[in-house]
Amino acid sequence: MRHIIHADLDAFYATVEQLDNPELAGKPVLVGGRPENRGVVATASYEARVFGVHSAMPMRTAIHRCPQGIIVPPRFTRYREMSRKVMAIFRDLTDLVEPISMDEAYLDVTAVVEAGQKPLAIAIDLKNRIAEETGLTLSVGVGTCKSVTKIGSDLDKPDGLVVVQPGDEAEFLAPLAVNKLWGIGPKTAERLHREGVETIGQLAEQPLEWFARMFGQRAIGVRDKAMGRDDEPVHTERVAKSLSSETTFTSDIGDAAELRAVVERKAVDVAHQLERKDLKGRTVTVKLRLSDFTTFTRQATLPYQTNAEEPIKETAWALLSAELEPGRTFRLLGVGVTNFVEPEEPEEAEERQLPLFVDDDDFSGDAT
Ligand code: TTP
Ligand code: MG
Question: Looking at 17, 98, 104, 246, which residue is catalytic?
């Protein structure tokens, strides 16, 4: 049996801003781009969240909901520095750390438990150490598998601590809404609601044939997760080999201006994902599917590593525009970045432009 901790910092960027500028402490802080530049909220302090402000919301809306909110531009170099401190504290506890983003990681603490410490005590010590050495607050989920601990860390935020005892996983999950389960997005949740399935417990009760019908190849995996069974180990190597964002259109598009707008949105989405994962890539790929379902990719490698919007946008558009022909229409468009390198040391980072602009429609894409 494994013992795993999922750790996620509370209101990460906003808390760093409050720590660095005590005048912001206890106040509604909105980290993100200016409303007049179509900025969006990267994150909001918990003081601002009570007004209904959340990540990815247009800053204009956020200020409308929370007029006393203080807008602070993001300082990624500083966040990365804090992130490294936090990850170092995690690694001091165990070598088995899997960073998921700048403020989030899984820790396999099986060896620590086997050496005689209780999971609860390990979690409390970790939270205390983070608070003392960085000033940040950490929410943790503790349990025997990743999917359960991930849900646990989110349940009691901020400053959360949720321990799920071995054997209690299914019971812990049962009353929670299905959309809390890893891999159940809003669309799937909607489909499940139509089947009368609202909670993870109701999901777990369904017969296997039903899962096969609803989830196809994913059936067994989803069923196991709903029952609180998940064998996924903590990966210490970076798992991501590429990041991408793609969209299938409701009707095929041939118009260059429209395609350009889509490709730029996808590029921005990928740039955001890279930023958040603290990664840079050199190769930009566009994936294209024509109206006859022919699917192909085109790629170009840049002379430098980047996670900035502009070069990704420009490269993706250059690749796509070379494929445009009169009468040719597209049903799917994706932008990806691969060929990752470890991030460069600070300094250079400050000159990147803010990657925080409003996206008018579906922002999420289908990240793969
Ligand atoms: P999260 O852990 O999702 O958010 P959070 O730490 O601000 O708040 P909490 O965990 O307490 O709910 O993301 C970590 C950081 O990533 C966040 O501080 C800012 C950045 N971020 C964005 O830039 N855009 C986004 O849409 C999200 C969700 C996060
Ligand atoms: Mg967080």
Answer: 104
